[in-house]
Amino acid sequence: MNTIRLSLLATGLTFAATGLAHAHATFETGSAPAETTVNATLQVPHGCDGKATTEVRVQLPEGFVFAKPQPKPGWELEIIKGDYRKTYDDHGTKVSSGPLEIRWKGGNLPDEHYDTFVVRGKLAGFDKETVLAFPTTQLCGADGKVVWDQVAAEGEDAHSLEHPAPTITVTMAAGDEHSGHGGHHQSAPKTVRLGDLEISGGAVKAMLPGAKVGGGGFVVRNGGSADDRLLAVESPAAGRVELHEMTMENDVMKMRKLEDGIAVPAGGTVELKSGGLHLMFMEVKKPFAEGDAVPVTLTFEKAGEVDYVLPVGTAAGNAHSGHSHQ
């Protein structure tokens, strides 16, 4: 295995406090759809019996691939690489090896403080709902250690474990055990949190055969004290995704592209839907069919990136016919 030393920030695993001295290691977001990229944010809530944490090690399970840690000031980063058990497709390139363990070293996190450590990776190669465990070790100086590596057996309650490993439940985007194409019923999207932002609801409209442009949206709530802005949306299902606004001018409905994104004010809620602010999927590769699901990656100015999955609802018909583009 190769070792690469860098500097890192944090990814998406979370140590959530459930009691000061015995808080368990958990992910901030406990589930995510298969074939999406996730930020795993790990919060470390305490040290080892009062001793400061100096190193955090996270083992990456099979299926969490193409991992990229983010630099973290004051900590040295070690990326342990090795072979995957399977081969994965990375935008047309076959990849059979990559990061297997991330280590944040040489820092100093006092017991009375907490900090976060983040890893970004893709959940790939799953055809059914799966629970992924990320065994995590916390080192405190030369002799202090806390290991979070216990995995619940089938039917066992993870809360009964003394040192449970952080987990992510990989879900199927279309609500069945396979890909979700071909008219299966699509359940409502799950709520996703990104810092102070909460993304929920929404849908994409089904498209007519041969159509290349689709529309959709979702709801963003900003529970923080600082304004944010949705800058961009990407989807593997379309050549590009644009942010649009539809307004009435001189009794004519006009639609314009929002080059500067969409503001999400502090304490406010913004809804993207037909007739107002919305998403436009351009150069759609295959017309969206009712019951399918469309994965998107949302980029916010301050909160960063997050993956979300939108169900495909009823047919759009000629919803945009007769509208004028500005």
From TrEMBL:
Residue span(s) of domain YncI copper-binding: 24-170
Signal sequence residues: 1-23
Domain of life where this protein originates: Bacteria
Record key words, sorted: Signal
Pfam families in the record: DUF1775 (PF07987), PCuAC (PF04314)
PANTHER family: BLR7088 PROTEIN, COPPER CHAPERONE PCU(A)C
Protein name: Signal peptide protein
Annotated source species: Rhizobium meliloti (strain 1021) (Ensifer meliloti)
